[in-house]
Design a protein that fits this description.
109 residues, five-stranded antiparallel beta sheet, single chain, mainly beta, four-stranded antiparallel beta sheet
Length: 109
């Protein structure tokens, strides 16, 4: 198991006016220098195969496909993927067709 040096977490909730959806985003930096960002969500009212963007302070991190209302975007520096550092106060969003379905603010974990 890798030793975590730094981490933060955001609980993803629907914005006002929307009732469905939940999720969580986590960012971690490990003792070996590697980093991971993992965003998971569920209970979205979207058809299977729909694509959503995961954004950090408005910048697109990547896209995830929806299946049975759920999806995941995981970025890992050990796989050569760019993992931006998430810091407390930054906003993470799950967006479909320009509309934020879920959002949360990173906090120390």
């Amino acid at each position: 198991m890798k030793r975590i040096l730094e981490d933060c977490e955001a609980k993803l909730r629907p914005p006002p006016g929307r009732r469905r959806g939940r999720g969580k985003a986590e960012w971690e930096r490990y003792a070996d220098g590697s980093e991971e960002l993992d965003a998971r969500f569920r209970k979205l009212e979207l058809p299977d195969g729909s694509s959503v963007e995961v954004r950090l302070d408005g910048a697109v991190l990547g896209c995830a496909s929806v299946s049975a209302g759920a999806g995941r975007l995981k970025l890992e520096s050990l796989k050569g993927e760019e993992v931006p550092k998430a810091v407390p106060g930054q906003v993470v969003e799950v967006v479909h067709d320009g509309v934020a379905l879920l959002a949360g603010v990173f906090k120390p974990d």
